Amino acid sequence: MAEIISIRTVNPDNEKVLAITEELSENLYLRFGSDGKNSFQDWQNNNSKFVFVIAEINDEVVGCGAVRPIDENTGEIKRMYSKFPGKKIGKTILLFLEEKAATLGYTDLVLETRLKNESAIQFYQKQGYKIIPNYGKYTDRPEAICLGKSLNQNS
């Protein structure tokens, strides 16, 4: 029987959520020497353009992801994480975030990952994201790679 992945919007400070975001931070630190927390400090819970979600299978939190505004039309994907590879958790989270972003009026999504994170780069490219020039604080960061996707295209 296939496991059902459910996605729901939550506050990133929710106690149940902290365990998955800490696991993500530990994973990033072990793999890349940085936990990514400093890229997620301007969260605004009372702003509808900010969306944080968790993925659950049988009431276990197995993944997370977020969108925050870069500008009125562009959202940034942040804190994407899947606890178990190969179960389509990441894809399910990303599709949910893309649909939610479109309903919030975003026309484009962008994201950053590390060049070393080849599996993430391949994952995003399979989901229709294209390599774009590094933006914002990533502009002069040679270890970073940025990707983007227009939400107006049927991909």
UniProtKB/TrEMBL annotation:
SUPFAM superfamilies cross-referenced by the UniProt entry: Acyl-CoA N-acyltransferases (Nat)
Pfam families with a match to the protein in the record: Acetyltransf_1
Calcium recorded as keyword: no
Keywords in alphabetical order: Acyltransferase, Transferase
KW Cytoplasm (keyword) present: no
Residue intervals of the N-acetyltransferase domain: 5-152
Gene3D superfamilies (alphabetical): 3.40.630.30
Transmembrane segments: none
Source superkingdom: Bacteria
The protein, known as: GNAT family N-acetyltransferase
Organism: Flavobacterium psychroterrae
